[in-house]
Amino acid sequence: xxxxxxxxxxxxxxxxxxxxxxxxxxxxxLLTSGAAIMxxxxxxxxxxxxxxxxxxxxxxxxxxxxxxxxxxxxxxxANIVRTLSNPKFEPRSSLSRTPHHLLEGTTTPNGxxxxxNHTGIPDIDPARHRLLIHGLVKQPLTFxxxxxxxxxxxxxxxxxxxGGNSAPFFSPTPIQANLQALHGLSSCAEWxxxxxxxxxxxxxxxxxxxxxxxxxxxAPHLMRSVPLMKGLDDAMIALYQNGEPxxxxxxxxxxxxxxxxxxxxxxxxxxxxxxxxxxxMSFWESQVYTEPMPPNKNGGKxxxxxxxxxxxxxxxxxxxxxDLKEPGIYEISGIAYSGRGKIAKVMxxxxxxxxxxxxxxxxxxxxxxxxxxxxxxRWSGGPAILQSRAWDDQGNFQPTRAAFITERGVLDSxxxxxxxxxxxxxxxxxxxxxxNGKVRHVYA
Amino acid sequence: xxxxxxxxxxxxxAAGAALAQNSNKADMAPHLGKPVSPAxxxxxxxxxxxxxxxxxxxxxxxxxxxxxxxxKCAACHGDGGRGSxxxxxxxxxxxxxxxxxxxxxxxxSTTSIANYWPYAPPLFDYIRRAMxxxxxxxxxxxxxxxxxxxxLAEGKVIDPKLAxxxxxxxxxxxxxxxxxxxxxxxxxxx
Lengths: 444, 190
Fold this sequence. Notes:
The structure holds two protein chains of two kinds. Chain A is mainly beta. Helices cover 10% and strands 28% of the residues of chain A. Chain A is globular and about 75 Å long. Chain B has nine helices and four strands. A two-stranded antiparallel ribbon of chain B has the order 2-3. Chain B is globular and about 60 Å long. In chain B, 35% of the residues are buried. At the A-B interface, strand 6, strand 7, helix 5, strand 10 and helix 6 of A face helix 1, strand 1, helix 7 and strand 4 of B. Strand 7 (141-143) of chain A pairs antiparallel with strand 1 of chain B.
């Protein structure tokens, strides 16, 4: 039998400022009410035996390791890696997923940014790479990487999310997998580059242009169609990712960044932009990134051209695999983002949606970027269901699972966790906490 | 000044300021783009519009495509494009191209080229730009037309005798042509 700490003292809970059922506490509790928490008998120092004696360790008695030119994380955290869909590199797409449950903050480290490449990662010599802008322009032009570096650069954070991220949630039963497997095809970085509009000023635009196609220099020459309006708004030719040149899997030496838009549209290894009158309806637009709908919705038609990744959030800690060891105070931490704007509010529930409390947002909150939310929670040792629900500053909000399914439907059998049998799902995620502290994916 | 002329004046000032800002921005750009001729961009200029615009000269039939498919495509996509052994066992695999599966709402795994794609020219576009997987851009335009014809004929979308070219491929009406709505109508260019 596992040893537990004391049960919460109900009499003291008022001083802990409960804001919602099943132990959600006011967000200021951890900052300002340390004494109150200690007073409840929940503080770690008061739960049992005294700390062990503090002793010398080998690493503080010997010379440490040498300094590498490019440092990599400690071998003690060698478990914090991406999971690979195609480790033997068979002739098909290769996906790698971000381990959100083992990370904090809002920036995905470059080595852990998710990637999807359909015919491997090209080895591009930046000196020989060219960007061509042509089609319905006044003057077709080519640019080199060196020439782009002389243009005015801007930096901004932006999340990139695959249109197929979270596809396991179309399952009729909650697939038991961790956060990385369920929501790992989404990452956030600071991108630096040249605004596409700057280059289009130089080529000039023929008024008949309504769309542009963007194409990569990788083997599939991946191509997507984008409304020209987005190209003139916040589109960027990104050259740097978190301060260093783009990672090869993320598009080195240059990629299109369309903040808030479906990942596949953010063409990597960008080599060509052509202004055109209409969309190409490429393979990706004709079949892959579409949403087949229930027969009684949308006139029986499927959705296509689903540009925007809509508002979404998920709790990273606790989450499946990060089980709770004893009752007491924990911080619930998670990520929220919207392809339409800034996160305005994240509400949390510990009782499966019966009551809600507002989480603290870690500032600065940036548009179309990850926003970290946190909230203190007192786990009583009883069953709990943790949920997060996000709102953006444009009035969009994350649908409950029930509301989402009513509109979009649900598969009639459980798919493989890696399958993409529909796309673009942003329903509320629920983690069930059992009395033994085990965290499971549940529907609530 | 009347209300209306005041408003017009304010708009002019705003527009002038915006112009000034734009020209300042343009002044800061180093103008390093190099002009390129149509001949010099021909090899890269391979995108096809959904309506078939930009399709190149050339032609091909399903009969010409069949041996090509067996030689260059079947190893990954299975005989007749009906899926590799992996795909048939439901494992991660290259896409199935030809299937008798009936489209079932919600489930994208029941979509195929024949029962789902709204336009036919993107099939030519994709084969030409991305296939074969391990040697893209090695097929002639005639070969791409032939493979396009083979896949569409196997999917019973076109008459197996039809020779596909820029005109006939653009004229192919896909069965699910009207099966879509854009998810964000407000973002669609007018």
